Amino acid sequence: MRAKILITPILAASALLFISGCSSNQSVKTTDGSTIVTDGKPEVDSDTGLVSYENAETGKTEQINRDQVKSMSELDN
Questions:
Q1: What's the predicted TM-score (pTM) here?
Q2: Percent over 70 (pLDDT), the chain
């Protein structure tokens, strides 16, 4: 009985650490020289040519045309 009480919080904490470790910030550099920091990896829609991302500063989901993106890279957190 006591072992079950200890195992549950340990498993929950492990799951939270695993999930939080999967999301990393990305840097999107645009052709006009600006840099956008995103929360998580941006998604590229090949049909529309748009890159969707969550802005790390505002928390809002935004889009930019793929032609305006110079590079995308993962940031060290």
A1: 0.66
A2: 69
